[in-house]
Amino acid sequence: MAVSRRRIPVDEGRAALAAWQDAAASAPGTQEPGSQAPGTQEPGTQGPGAHVPGAAGTGAVPRATIATAVRYSLEEVTARAPGNSVEVRVPPFGVTQCVEGPRHTRGTPPNVIECDAATWLAMVSGQLSWADAVAAGKVAASGLRADLSALLPL
Q: Residue 80: its pLDDT value, please?
């Protein structure tokens, strides 16, 4: 297996992730994890209207900081679960292959996970669980190995 090199320095990545978390926590309308956004769902239910912590607050964080936080966290997932069987996409900021298993080399990978930056960072930071994000339709996951619940939060 090839040794991966980090492109984002660890301290810089942690600082970017902390800046995103601070902005998400202080954003107007941010609610506790697992709670609903007003008018989107009934109390105690999960569904497509589930609130993504920090989604409203991402505008307060510079795009470069969000990009650094996403890229750092993708590198961290790969460091914790090296491999090439699952492709994780967080457009437009980054993509990585992780999790041991059959190597993917061409075409569309059989195991793909894709979500937006706010959802990814909320899952990485523990503000949103993998199960809640999938149930709410915030994460597109296809394939038998496309489940990062054991790796998240970081």
A: 92
